[in-house]
Amino acid sequence: MFTLNGIVYASEKPENLQILSAKPLDDMMMILTFSTGEQRLFDATVLTGSAFAPLADEKIFKDCKVVDGIVTWMDEDIDCAPEYMYEHSYAYLA
């Protein structure tokens, strides 16, 4: 059992979580598809600090790539752990 975003789940937290695809949207939002098969909505404005400052440029933000299950930007100079993105995202039903 684990808690995520105030919701208690009966299953175990996924291990070796990976991102299969990332679709950037406007306003630093993105739809992520995880190795669990889930699609989740991630608000990248939670990525703060100087390391993530370039993402404020929409062109840079939208030019993301998934490399080895991790979302990256700027030729892998910037990345974010899939676990963090999962924990800070919300279920998305297409």
Task: Describe how the helices and strands are arranged.
Layout: E1 2-4, E2 7-9, E3 19-24, E4 29-34, E5 39-43, H1 58-62, E6 65-67, E7 70-73, E8 78-80, H2 82-87, E9 89-91
Antiparallel strand pairs: 1-2, 3-4, 4-5, 5-9, 6-7, 7-8
Pfam families: DUF2442
Protein name: DUF2442 domain-containing protein
Organism: Blautia segnis
Task: Describe this protein's structure.
The longest helix is centred in the C-terminal third of the chain and has 6 residues, at 82-87. The chain has helices at residues 58-62, 82-87; strands at 2-4, 7-9, 19-24, 29-34, 39-43, 65-67, 70-73, 78-80, 89-91. With 94 residues, it is mainly β. Strand 3 (19-24) and strand 4 (29-34) form a beta hairpin. It has a single domain (17-91), classed as NE0471-like N-terminal domain (NE0471 N-terminal domain-like). Strands 3-4-5-9 form a four-stranded antiparallel β-sheet. Strands 6-7-8 form a three-stranded antiparallel β-sheet. It has two helices and nine strands, in the order βββββαβββαβ. The protein is globular, with a radius of gyration of 13 Å.
